[in-house]
């Protein structure tokens, strides 16, 4: 009886180990508090993705240290397909912003699927600044090198790095004034404390429509249907200024290929649902379908592009 019981226990253990993936809930780790862009992205598809995978999807918010805490957690997680990381530009910014990281952004992760691309970063000015267009702002900045300040939501944020890209492309000199959040930066610009600011479309939309701020350009490939009156940087004469913000899913590096492909297939299926596409449009994003390999190529290209900007600007967080 003891022998039979031992064999029965061993059989159960083997059957459990060989259970078809997924056999338990999947945890999606987010490096921000609830309510941010990456958090909003995964929550926009969480119910449908859980249904497609046949298991609950648990969103695990782990904010802190510029996403390093969450990213490290996933890099060190068991590579079994039950822990994934909701990645945003921090995954390709941090290797250049921080001299030491407890993970390797390339070696320690396996791309699963791209999810969305958003280009809602806008350049706005206070109405007291006599610039109705981006070209007029550039002319003013060139006539007063080093005299104008711009606000962003903090060192190393997308608006900060994007504006540094803009400065380099346009060959102008502006002084960076970092604030603790995009909201505070936009508030400073609204009050005229800082004449220029960079922030997301949703942070400036109401203020722009009320005339408290003047939007000059949006860093996207096309105009936003939410503010169609605002031209793109390309339309204004500077197509090199590209503020695309890619988000997607990563897994620990040694995650089995079968698990990655099931997650990829489910994600692509969900992103084609009309209701999901509408949710992304409402938050200023476009869904992005693709294979793990395609997402990997996007990440490498973005790391190369932004790494050059960060190095030239000398931006460091430590």
How would you describe this protein?
This protein is 43% helix and 19% strand. The termini are far apart. It is built from 11 helices and 11 strands. The strands form 2 sheets. Strands 2-1-3-10-4-11 form a 6-stranded mixed sheet, sandwiched between helices. Strands 7-6-8-5-9 form a 5-stranded mixed sheet, with helices on both faces. The longest helix has 22 residues, at 292-313. The radius of gyration is 22 Å and the shape is globular. It has helices at residues 2-17, 37-53, 68-75, 90-97, 134-143, 158-170, 182-190, 201-209, 257-271, 274-282, 292-313; strands at 26-30, 57-61, 83-87, 109-118, 121-125, 149-152, 175-178, 196-200, 214-218, 245-252, 285-287. Mean pLDDT is 91; it is low at 1-17. The chain has 2 domains: 26-117 and 245-313, 3-Layer(aba) Sandwich (D-Maltodextrin-Binding Protein, domain 2); 121-218, D-Maltodextrin-Binding Protein, domain 2 (3-Layer(aba) Sandwich), CATH 3.40.190. With 318 residues, the protein is α/β, with parallel strands linked by helices. Strand 1, helix 2 and strand 2 form a beta-alpha-beta unit.
């Amino acid at each position: 009886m003891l022998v039979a019981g031992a064999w029965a226990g061993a059989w159960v253990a083997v059957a459990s180990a060989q259970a078809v993936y997924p056999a338990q809930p999947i945890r999606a780790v987010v490096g921000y508090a609830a309510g941010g862009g990456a958090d909003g992205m995964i929550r926009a598809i969480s119910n449908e993705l859980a249904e497609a995978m046949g298991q609950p999807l648990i969103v695990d918010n782990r904010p802190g240290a510029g996403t390093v805490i969450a990213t490290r957690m996933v890099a060190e997680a068991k590579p079994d397909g039950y822990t994934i990381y909701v990645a945003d530009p921090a995954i390709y910014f941090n290797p250049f912003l921080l001299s030491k990281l407890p993970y390797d952004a390339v070696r320690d992760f396996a791309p699963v699927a791209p999810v969305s691309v958003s280009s809602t970063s806008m350049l706005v000015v206070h109405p007291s600044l006599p610039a109705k267009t981006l070209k007029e702002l550039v002319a003013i900045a060139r006539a007063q090198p080093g005299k104008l300040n711009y606000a962003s939501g903090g060192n190393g944020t997308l608006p900060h790095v994007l504006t540094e890209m803009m400065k380099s492309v346009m060959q102008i000199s502006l002084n960076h004034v970092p604030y603790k959040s995009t909201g505070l930066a936009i508030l400073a610009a609204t009050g005229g404390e800082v004449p220029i600011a960079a922030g997301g479309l949703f942070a400036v939309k109401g203020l722009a429509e009320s005339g408290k701020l003047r939007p000059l350009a949006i860093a996207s490939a096309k105009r936003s249907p939410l503010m169609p009156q605002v031209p793109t940087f390309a339309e204004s004469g500077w197509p090199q200024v590209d503020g695309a913000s890619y988000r997607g899913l990563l897994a620990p590096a040694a995650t089995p290929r079968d698990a990655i492909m099931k997650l990829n297939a489910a994600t692509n299926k969900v992103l084609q649902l009309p209701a999901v596409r509408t949710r992304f449009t409402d938050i200023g994003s476009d869904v992005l379908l693709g294979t793990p390999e395609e997402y990997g190529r996007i990440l490498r290209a973005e790391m190369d592009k932004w790494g050059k900007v960060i190095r030239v600007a000398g931006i460091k967080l430590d």
